[in-house]
Amino acid sequence: MSTRAEQYSATVLRREQLSDHLVRLVLGGEGLAAFRSTDIPDEWVGLVVPGQFQARYYTVRSWDGVEMVLDVVVHETGLVTEWARGECVGDVVTVTEAKGSFDLPEGAQWVLLVGDLTALPAMARIRETVDLPTRIWAEVPDDMSGYLPPGADVTWLPVPEHETSELASVVEQIDWPEGEGYFWMAGESAQMRAIRKHLMRVRQLPSHAYDVMGYWRSTAGRQPRAVDPAPIHRAGKAAGTNDAQTWADHHAAREQE
C-alpha cells in the first residue's frame, strides 16, 4: 500500500501584503475540492511554487472548504520569497496534505503561546479556536497589532537589532499561571532546542504539557530552511521516545548535514 502524501493543485486567487515581511495568499480552484483539514489549529501544508520542486511549509491560517489562506513570511532572497513578492495571482501551485501537532491535554486550564513571525498564523488560529485563558508572546519585526483576534492578551516583542531571537530568555522569565495548562511554541530551531531544555529540566513539565517545534533553521546568511516537524514528531511518538530526546536526536542529525 502506498504511503505517498496526498497532493492538490491550487490557483492563487488573491494576494495581499499584510506587512513588510508577511504576504497573504488565498488559494482555490477545483484541485482543492478534495482537500481535508485536520481541524488541528496549528495545521500546516507543504507548498510547491512554480520553478521549485521542494516544498516549503506554511500554517493554514484558514480553510472554509473552498478557499485556503496561507500567510507567508518573506525574506531578502529565496525562490518562495521572490515568487510571493511578485505578480503571483493566477499561478498554479501544489499543496500537500495537512498535518498538525497542537494537542491540548484534557483538563487544561490555560494556554501559553510563544513564537516569532513564522508562528503568528498558528497562534492566531489557536487563539480563535481554544476557549481557555490564553497568553501570547510574539517576536515580530513589523507592527502586527491588528493581526491577532480582538481582545488577545499579547505581549509584542521587537526583533533584536542583532537579529538573533531572544525568545529563549523570554520563556525563562514567564510568570506561569497556577494549575495545569498547555505551552505551545514555534520558531527558529536553535531557540526551540534551548527552550525544550528549560521546560524539561527547570519547569519539569511532562511531555504532554508542551509542544515546541522548530519551524525553520538559520543557515548563516542564506534563506532560512523550512522544516517539516511532522515526521520527527511522529517517529518519536511511535518509538516511545520522550519529546526532549526525539528533538535532540533530530538536531544532532541536522548539525552534521
Q: Helix segment count?
A: 6
At the fourth CATH level, what is the homologous superfamily of the largest domain? Nucleotide-binding domain of ferredoxin-NADP reductase (FNR) module
- Look at the helices and sheets and give the structural class: alpha/beta
CATH architecture of the largest domain: 3-Layer(aba) Sandwich
Strand ordering within the main sheet: 1-2-5-4-3-6
**What oligomeric state do these chains adopt?**
single chain
CATH class of the largest domain: Alpha Beta
Q: Enumerate the spans where pLDDT stays under 50 for 5 or more consecutive residues.
A: 220-225, 250-257
CATH topology of the largest domain, anyone?
Answer: Rossmann fold
- What does the overall shape look like? globular
Protein name: Siderophore-interacting protein
Region (Disordered): 233-257
Biased composition (Basic and acidic residues): 248-257
GO molecular function, one term: oxidoreductase activity
